[in-house]
Amino acid sequence: MKNNHKGDFRKSCIKKLEFISLFSKYYKNKIIVKKLEKFIKESESKNILLYIPLGIEVDVRPLIKTLRKKKNINVYVPFMEADSFKIVKYRLPLNRKKFNILEPNNSFLKPNKIDVAVVPVVGIDSLNKRIGYGKGMYDRFFDRLSYKPTIIFTQLILCKSKEVLSDNYDIQADYIITN
């Protein structure tokens, strides 16, 4: 029964996110990116996992651009592999892959530990656990890490359930940044 609720909640959040006006989206993105930049600077994080956004996700590309100019910061993004992903250094060109996601080319360099992981969410439940697109890629990725980075969820508008919809393997946020 819980999974049915989770699916319905996911659909309603996606609907809300799809109907944000372009002006509103632009404004919300700017606010959230500024908050992320401030957090990264204050935490003195050096290895940052970001993502290449889909249309309903917070557009972190301006943050990627800013961070890449800093000599002491490494920017990583997911590279889909099997049922999850590995992290690769962000670099151009980007290629369109499965689920219409853009990715850089594969990299064989193993990054140091990531300090901060910025993760897009469709919604969150009452435990601040992630409701994503339902593929479980982020959950598997973090489950396979031997350490726990600081996890920040981003969302254009907060879509939060009053119920527990997550499973015990769903990842939980240390921070949630929305507008």
From TrEMBL:
Substrate binds at residues 52, 57. GO terms for biological process: folic acid-containing compound biosynthetic process; tetrahydrofolate interconversion. ATP binds at residues 6-10, 130-138. It is an enzyme of class 6 (ligase). Its cofactor is Mg(2+). It catalyses: (6S)-5-formyl-5,6,7,8-tetrahydrofolate + ATP = (6R)-5,10-methenyltetrahydrofolate + ADP + phosphate. The keyword Ligase applies. One of its GO terms (molecular function) is 5-formyltetrahydrofolate cyclo-ligase activity. InterPro entries: FTHF_cligase, FTHF_cligase-like_sf, NagB/RpiA_transferase-like. Its EC number is 6.3.3.2. It comes from the Bacteria. Keywords: ATP-binding, Ligase, Magnesium, Metal-binding, Nucleotide-binding. Belongs to the 5-formyltetrahydrofolate cyclo-ligase family. This is 5-formyltetrahydrofolate cyclo-ligase. The lineage of its organism: Bacteria, Pseudomonadati, Campylobacterota, Epsilonproteobacteria, Campylobacterales. The gene is fau.
